[in-house]
Amino acid sequence: MNIILIGPPGAGKGTQAKKIAAKYKIPHISTGDMFRETSQSGSVLGKELQGYMSAGKLVPDDLVIKIVMERLGKDDAANGFLLDGFPRTIPQAEALDKALSSVKKKIERVVAIIVEDEEIVKRLASRRVCSACGAAYNTITQPPKKDNHCDACAGKVVQRADDNESTIRKRLAVYKEQTSPIIEYYSRPGIVRKVQGSGAVESIFKAICESIEK
Fold first, then answer.
1. 72, 103, 104, 171: least buried by Cβ within 10 Å?
2. Residue 88 catalytic?
């Protein structure tokens, strides 16, 4: 199964992506991971990518597609893949479809995790991380046992700079602007499955699996 996973920041995509990848025995592929792997590979593509990243420039769509297709050509993606964070625009989606078609593949499911804005704001504003080891906490659902100190390493637990309400709302606005057209684009072939992202992790995962298999 070739799947795209879409969801706003704070929707729990990372948690669900790991579970989906494990259940269906397909690789979870994020643009961040792909860029890191490619830039460190020493390949021609890696050197080209590194040039853009070092200069702080936006990586052109055609290069992104080449990197995606190189990753999807690896053995672990032969029986399917889960794309996370890509495509972000209609031109990227069109280019991806064209590239996949050339190797006789296609996107079969687009899973969109839906969460209300106010819940996202509440989730992210209460999120905390250990400044030393990166362990994740939540002041509402999973606070550290000792105030502001990590359970694992005793490092200082802090709020990320981009987890304040103003920044969260800006990120949500950008997400909606970028993602609404993508969902509409993939709605035409009828492969979008919308899943409510509120509630217990296992309940959401069950709904995702049902939507994929329907």
1. 104
2. yes
Known active-site residue 176: no
Domain 2-115+176-213: which topology?
Answer: Rossmann fold (3.40.50)
- Tell me the per-residue pLDDT of 58-115, one tens digit each, with 9 for 90 and over: 889 999 999 999 999 999 999 999 999 899 889 999 999 999 999 999 999 999 999 9
Contact 202, 16 (CB under 8 A): no
Cα–Cα distances in Å, from 86 out to 62, 94, 130, 131?
13, 12, 28, 29
Angle, helices 31-39 vs 44-54, to 10°: value is 110
Tell me which of 160, 170, 176, 206 is the catalytic residue. Answer: 160
pLDDT at 161: 85
193 a catalytic residue: no
Does 109 qualify as catalytic in the annotation? no
- Asked if pLDDT for residue 34 goes beyond 90, the answer is no
Give the whole-angstrom CA distance, residue 141 versus residue 31. Answer: 29
- Residue % of the chain over a pLDDT of 90: 70
Domain segments of the chain: what residues? Answer: 2-115+176-213
